[in-house]
Design goal:
By secondary structure, the chain is mainly beta. The chain is built from no helices and 11 strands. A hairpin with a 6-residue loop joins strand 5 and strand 6. The protein is globular and about 40 Å long. It starts with a strand and ends with a strand.
């Protein structure tokens, strides 16, 4: 049974940093990419960053976080968030198990999801 558990969320002031982690347990037998997503109240879930599961070169970021967020994977999937803005406030989710020939950000198609961790940025 595959499980994804996020941690690292919290409350920070604008300009601060947080590092989110996603611990993945179980065997994922499909998919070649993982990603981070967020959902603010009243808004649809959106992709933040994506990375290849096998450690291949290449990452993809939404324009709103490019240059401020860094996705990485080692023993777990991580998202380093710097220069945080109030507009980054949302529930953040990690996901795995998407198969596609290119990295992509829309959340559709991912097989496995975590429960989310809240990030709140105050001005």
């Amino acid at each position: 049974q595959v499980q994804l558990v996020e941690s690292g969320g919290g409350s920070v002031q604008a300009g601060g940093s947080l590092r989110l982690s996603c611990k993945i347990s179980g065997y994922i037998d499909n998919g070649n990419q993982m990603g981070w997503f967020r959902q603010a109240p009243g808004k649809e879930r959106e992709g933040v960053a994506a990375i290849w599961t096998d450690g291949g070169d290449g990452t993809l970021y939404d324009a709103s976080v490019e240059g401020r967020f860094t996705i990485s994977q080692d023993n777990m999937l991580s998202l380093q968030m710097d220069s945080l803005k109030p507009s980054d406030t949302a529930m953040y989710y990690c996901a795995a198990g998407l198969a596609d020939w290119r990295l992509r950000l829309p959340p559709s198609g991912y097989a496995y999801w975590g429960q989310g961790t809240q990030v709140t940025v105050s001005s």
